[in-house]
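thread: overnight batch results

M.L. [08:02]
morning all. the overnight job finished for the chain we discussed friday. pasting input first so we're all looking at the same thing
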Amino acid sequence: MTAVTMLTFTGSPQAATPLLGRTATAAERTDATLGYRADGRADSRVFGATAAPPFKKLWSRDFGTVVSAPVAVGDKVYAVVNADDGTEGGPRMMLIGVNAATGKDLWPAVRLEQNETEAGVSYGGGLLYTQTSRGTIAAWNPATGRRKWSVTLDTASMQYPPVWYDGSLYLQDGRGTALALRADTGARVWSAPLSEYSWAPTVVDASGVWIGFDGIAWHHLNLKTGAELRRFEVPNVSGAYGNPVVLGAGAAWMRSSDTDDESVTAYSQKTGKVLRKLSADATPAFGPGRVYVAYRGKVKALSTSTYKAAWTYSSSVKAATVRMVAHGFVYVDDADGRLVVLNEKTGKVAWSYRRFPAPHPMSNILAEEDWRGFTVPGIATAKGRLFVPAADGTLIGFGKD
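M.L. [08:03]
and the structure it wrote out:
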């Protein structure tokens, strides 16, 4: 069972705001991107979004080598970056905050404890939360960049940031333990054993905490106690990686990367029974009445009632994944290097932007490999703007103003 070995606080008790971490703010309840794959459900959908193509570039910032999936709330954007420009001989992981309209710093970038790769950021209850691969979880005031608290786990191997839900943070340490922490203090609420060691992300909604290990195993845990509600496990099979669980259409969707069985399986959130299985090499995304499933470069918009395709988008390099669904548009991360925005109803291209150079024709191209790298990838939107990490550690802000 994972133990907490360090708990530190920054600032005086008198200066602390009691509600920070406990209650969702008005700005984060709608038209905000709170972390990896949008929010705690990881369904890539941004509710109440207002951004719409075509977009105009507002600003561009070079932060070093790589930029994480951004967080966008109101008029502010946050990310974890590797600020090493290639001359330092190692990572320099920093938490940054910028003005959404101008790209200017909100406060000086803050270096994370345990300077290491696999760091990321999420948002909830008016606070930012970061994680490092060896298990330092910290809360930050988004207005000042000052650390509120920090917890370091005894042993951990983490890729994904914690998930905020109703005043608590949920995570798993990659060493066989799930945890819940108080979001305002970092104090441990509960811990629970898991069947696998993996970089799997944690997904949360009102039904409980979901942690899945590709197509090999999954756990459904009670929000308040960590008690196991349901469990699935393939006998005598182990070695899962870190494909995200996604909650959508009444199911928990788990994706397998096995080359002999590239698929996504939907398990009923109420009973745990298998509802359906579809070919997929990327994590599905959801919109109103739709699930978007990608396989070998073909993104299909499937009805969640009939599972018939309304339209199909095809990548020229036969690899793509959906990163966001917002305000009637589907944002496709095409492995040809472009972000392609499609009309949700018709599938027609509404706008595109080249984020990275086109891959070499002989390169091995994967649709999605979110569990491997300095940070987990993603894009974000809030208040009519779009925020896109691009090549060489660049973060770009788009809008219409």
